[in-house]
Each structure stands twice: as C-alpha cells, then as structure tokens.
Write a structure and sequence with these properties.
15 strands
Length: about 350
C-alpha cells in the first residue's frame, strides 16, 4: 500500500469505530529500507498495514504504536543505534535503540486515531431527538432509531445506548440492548419505572450482571427538569465518563448510584390501593396519545384484548406481557399492570376479555 491507500483504509477503520495508530516516517538516514513519507496503520492487536521499515524497525514501531493507542498520546520516535545521535536529540523525542546490521536510522511520528463516540438513541420522543442533535453537534456518530427497529446488532461493546421509548417497549429495548453489552446502557425514566422494567426482565431470567449495567435514570440527577435539560444531563454524564476514561467499566461498577436492584423492584412497584383509578386514567391518556402519534404508520392491528387492570385495549400478542391464570390468558399495557394483577388476581379477573 502507498501512503494514499493507507489513508483510505484509515478512514474505513474510523467509520467502523476501530481505534488504531497511524505511523509516518518523517526522516530517514540510509541505508534504511524505508522512505520518507511512508505510512502504516497499526491496530490495537498489533496488526500492521503498510510499510514502515524492515525487520529491525517494524517490531519496535508496532510495540510503540500499541502504547500510543493505549494512552492516547502521540510520540515522535528516533530509531537507530545508541551511539548514532549522542546529545543531538531534540527535546520531546523518544530514542529507541535498535540493533541492525546497517547504520540506517528513522524518525517516525506515531499518532493515535480514536474514533468518534458511537451513540444509539432508541425512541422517537422530543427528548430523544434533542439528545441525538446535541451528540451530533459534538461530532459523535449518532443513530436515532425507533424501538421496533432497534436490535442488538445496532450497537457494539464500544457503543453507548440510551433507551428513551417513554414506556412504549422499554422492556424489549433494554433486553435487546443488554445483548450487545454496550459500554453504557441507560434508561430514561423514573426510579419507579426503572424498578418495574428491571424487575420484569429479572423475572424473564435476564442475568443480574446484565441488569446491573443499566443506569436508571440515565443522566446526571438534576431533579425535575424539562425534556431538553434531560438530554443535556444525559450527554453531560456520557462526556463525564469519557473524560474520566471510565466508560468501559462504569456501566457495571457504578450502577448503584442510579439503578434499583431487581429484588427491590418487586416491592417498589406495588402501588397503594387508592392510586388505582388515577394510574389507570394516566395510562389511558398515554396510550391515547401514542395511538394518535402512530396512526399514520400503523400496520393492520392484531387481535385485541382488554387490560384487566386499567381497562385499556391492547394487542393480544407476546409484546403485551401475556399472563396465564386459571386457564385464561390476560394481556397488559405494561409490566406495572401485569404486576398488580399478579399481586391480586381476584380483584381484576372479572374485567378480563378472553382471546
């Protein structure tokens, strides 16, 4: 590969989100086999693409490039025999003695290429759109996808995923996201909502170590704020984690500050009996709004059922949290309603619609 082909490949690696180092020969002293201006790409696992020198220089450049990738700091190397340069080495240059049959020498500049952060925002709410716009303004690779379009392959272990589905498919989106094991996984919602989601997923058998990685609520805790400010709070947390170089480990180790454990979720979501009517009205209002928003793109509706708790009409599908009780299958608008039914089936069973 010549220098221009190397740059094209560097662009491809950056687009894929892969970190690497770019090494450039800025000076040579014959009879070195390299040429001034020669370039090579070195990946984190030590794979080299291009030509930077012969058997003496190449292992040294690979080793130093891996260090550059690890600490994120560029280096200017002077490669040669120990007695070649004496006191004539400029300040800030790293001299790396190499033992070669020839008396050639190389000056190589190695720079880290760290891809822009990859952020996946799941949801179509105003907050989700605002967050995506802010991240793009920072130059981040940002994807805004609807909950039904999001899959585990949308993200990687280097990605940051924010689930902002506003109660519409939270459970499914979080479950799919955990499969990608992203560096960051946050759920937009209250502590109570998060406890219900995590509790439901725990009941479905998701491992505790995956659930512990979910931050609920996502973002810095700034109290009661607007949706635009929530977007800023989430982005601020992501920037903070990146600045501290703790992104890869923080998702699992620091979840205690935000997340509620699944065991707590089972009791935290149990509402007072007097709140049933108010909760049902709120849930019905949310569903009515959701139906209006999606009416233009709705596909033919599947068989319908009535949530026995809040009396909402829901699709009689696996996405509506089905529960079999006394030979009858019930469907629910959310895990919250399903959990209420489980706690006291006799109070709700007469309202059931068979499917």
């Amino acid at each position: 590969m010549d220098g221009w082909e190397i740059l094209k490949q560097a662009d491809e690696l950056e687009q894929r989100g892969q970190a690497f180092a770019l090494a450039t020969v800025v000076w040579r002293q014959g009879p070195s086999s390299s040429q001034q201006g020669a370039r090579a790409i070195i990946t984190a696992d030590g794979e080299l693409h291009g030509w930077i020198g012969g058997a003496c220089a190449e292992p040294t450049v690979i080793r130093e490039a891996q260090r550059v990738i690890a600490d994120g700091t560029p280096r200017l190397l002077l490669l040669g025999s120990p007695d070649q340069f004496g006191a004539a080495v400029p300040e800030g240059m790293t001299v790396v003695p190499i033992s070669c049959q020839s008396e050639g020498a190389l000056e190589v500049y190695i720079e880290p290429v760290v891809p822009a952060p990859h952020l996946v925002v799941v949801g179509r709410s105003p907050m989700a759109r605002t967050l995506a716009e802010l991240a793009r303004a920072l130059g981040w690779r940002t994807e805004l996808v609807a909950a039904e379009e999001f899959t585990a392959t949308t993200a990687t272990e280097q990605s940051m995923v924010v689930v902002a589905t506003q109660g519409h498919g939270d459970e499914e989106a979080v479950e799919r996201a955990t499969g990608a094991r992203p560096a960051y996984l946050g759920l937009v919602g209250s502590h109570r909502r998060g406890a219900a989601v995590l509790g439901y997923l725990a009941d479905r058998g998701l491992p505790a170590d995956q659930l512990d990685r979910v931050r609920v609520p996502a973002g810095l805790d700034l109290g009661h704020i607007t949706h635009r400010e929530i977007a800023v709070a989430i982005l601020a947390e992501l920037v903070q984690l990146r600045a501290a170089r703790a992104l890869a480990g923080a998702a699992g180790a620091a979840s205690a500050r935000h997340a509620t454990a699944p065991a707590t979720a089972k009791t935290a979501t149990a509402p007072a009996a007097t709140a049933k009517t108010a909760t049902a009205k709120t849930a019905t209002a949310k569903t009515a709004t959701a139906k209006t928003a999606t009416a233009k793109t709705a596909t033919p509706a599947p068989t319908q059922a009535v949530d026995p708790v809040c009396e909402m009409t829901v699709p009689a599908t696996a996405a509506s949290f089905p529960l079999a009780h006394d030979g009858v299958t019930y469907y629910f608008c959310s895990t919250n309603c399903r959990r209420r039914f489980e706690q006291d089936p006799a109070a709700y069973a007469p309202k059931e619609t068979r499917c």
